[in-house]
């Protein structure tokens, strides 16, 4: 590939495009929360009830799932489940339940968990990572259902996960226990079959395949967590295996009610400082950013152009989602590892997330390219929104074009924290101004 130059033709075409003054703003949402210190007690209270406590018997080998998403307090929640199992005299172990993530390798999945502080040492129990699966049966839609071999051979499985809206489809079952059982525990083989019919059918595949898992595997119960609009744990609820198919859709409605959003709802340009698999399966949560990879889900802010500036270290080179941006920096392109990215695309059959958008030399040029290519706008009055990432949008930045309306109260829940000022960049065009002081 030709070198991305700071002084090339692209740089010359963009150098005079004005970047708007911006101000910091606070977005306020409902904030029911369980503090990290409270989590072990909440887990123990949930699992100490019947019918959960009596299901975990002395000497049982119990598999506990851990996924690939950047869930707040996931290490604390997982350790609390492990400790409960130990308190019942059983022997817990953790199983990576993340489909094809981690480059579809056992080693890659261990690396992802370690990034979330889930290791044998921190959890106090073994982690059994393998891509080997067993065949459980066939769903009513004719799809073969697979399950992680280590989990299948355990005396019982506890499905620990997050429950939230999905980023590519809609249905009664999105991201939650049923997806964890079929996609996560299905490893690459199972995840591939869940996605094989396309994202317009996955909402049917997940529950029908989950029925097979519930019938043929030793699922004891699920214990999903739900997060509030500030990416904080707000609910942890244990669900008996027999009730998962009825309770999950009810909890999904609660999760939707706690979703954050960009309250201004529309603009010209969205700037995302950092993307990665620890924020969302597609780098950013399109329920926030509007960058959906399929036509089967909608929502998020409406803008003409979106740019991504940095890839998180926790993503281990998996830059999925960048294909949905208008522009990315050469930093992201440099950090991409297609061996980590493409297994997800091959498994999900969704290729849009892995396409390569326009690549520019710096943060400033990514922003300028987006502004320059917007249609029917006044470049001196561009409506630009900037976020740290799609999980943390309590404090954001808005361009000067929004300032008078924010001060006048046009956007309930949005408060200006300072006045519009020029963004600061270093000599190479890297953004220095922080979203949150």
How would you describe this protein?
The protein has 437 residues and is an alpha/beta fold. Helix content is 30%, strand content 19%. It contains 15 helices and 16 strands. It has helices spanning 9-14, 39-47, 74-87, 106-115, 120-123, 149-153, 177-184, 187-195, 202-216, 244-257, 286-289, 330-335, 338-348, 363-373, 403-407; strands at 22-27, 61-66, 91-96, 133-138, 144-148, 156-162, 219-227, 233-236, 239-240, 269-275, 305-311, 327-329, 358-360, 384-387, 395-399, 414-416. The strands form 3 sheets. It has an 8-stranded mixed β-sheet. Strands 2, 3, 6, 7, 8 and 9 form a 6-stranded mixed β-sheet that branches. Strand 4 and strand 5 form a beta hairpin. The chain is globular, with a radius of gyration of 22 Å. The mean pLDDT is 94.
Portion of residues within helices:
25-40%
Which whole number gives the mean pLDDT?
94
What's the end-to-end separation, in Å?
A: 38 Å
Number of strands: 16
> What overall geometry do the principal axes of the alpha carbons give?
globular
């Amino acid at each position: 590939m030709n070198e991305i130059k700071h002084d090339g033709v692209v740089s010359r075409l963009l150098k005079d495009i004005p970047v708007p003054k911006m101000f910091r703003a606070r977005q306020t949402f409902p904030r029911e929360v369980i503090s990290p210190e409270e989590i072990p007690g909440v887990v123990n209270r949930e699992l100490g009830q019947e019918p959960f406590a009596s299901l975990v018997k002395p000497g049982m080998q119990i598999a506990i799932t851990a996924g690939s998403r950047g869930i707040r307090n996931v290490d604390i929640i997982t350790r609390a489940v492990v400790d409960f199992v130990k308190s019942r005299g059983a022997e817990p172990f953790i199983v990576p339940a993340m489909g094809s993530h981690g480059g579809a390798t056992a080693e890659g999945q261990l690396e992802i968990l370690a990034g979330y502080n889930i290791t044998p040492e921190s959890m106090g129990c073994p982690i059994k990572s393998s891509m080997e699966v067993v065949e459980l049966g066939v769903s009513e839609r004719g799809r073969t259902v697979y399950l992680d071999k280590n989990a299948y051979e355990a005396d019982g499985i506890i499905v620990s996960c997050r429950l939230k809206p999905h980023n590519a489809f809609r249905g009664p079952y999105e991201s939650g226990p049923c997806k964890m059982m079929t996609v996560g525990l299905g490893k690459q083989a199972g995840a591939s079959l869940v996605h094989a019919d396309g994202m317009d059918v996955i909402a049917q595949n997940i529950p029908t395949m989950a029925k097979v898992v519930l019938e043929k595997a030793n699922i004891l119960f699920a214990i999903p967590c739900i997060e509030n609009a500030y990416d904080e744990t707000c609910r942890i609820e244990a669900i008996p295996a027999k009730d998962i198919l009825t309770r999950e859709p009810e909890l999904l409605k609660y999760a939707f009610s706690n979703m954050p959003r960009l309250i201004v709802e529309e603009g010209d340009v969205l700037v995302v400082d950092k993307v990665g698999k620890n924020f969302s399966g597609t780098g950013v949560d399109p329920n926030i950013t509007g960058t959906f990879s399929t036509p089967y889900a909608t929502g998020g802010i409406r803008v003409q152009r979106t740019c991504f500036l940095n890839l998180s270290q926790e993503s281990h080179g998996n830059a999925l989602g960048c294909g949905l941006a208008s522009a990315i920096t050469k930093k992201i392109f440099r950090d991409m590892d297609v061996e980590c990215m493409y297994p997800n695309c091959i498994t999900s059959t969704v290729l849009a997330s892995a396409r390569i958008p326009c690549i520019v030399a710096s943060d400033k040029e990514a922003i300028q390219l987006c502004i320059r290519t917007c249609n029917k706008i006044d470049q001196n009055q561009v409506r630009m929104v900037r976020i740290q990432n799609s999980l943390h949008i309590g404090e954001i930045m808005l361009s000067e074009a929004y300032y008078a309306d924010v001060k006048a109260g046009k956007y309930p829940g949005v408060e200006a924290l300072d006045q519009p000022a020029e963004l600061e960049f270093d000599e190479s065009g890297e953004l220095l101004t922080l979203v949150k002081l």
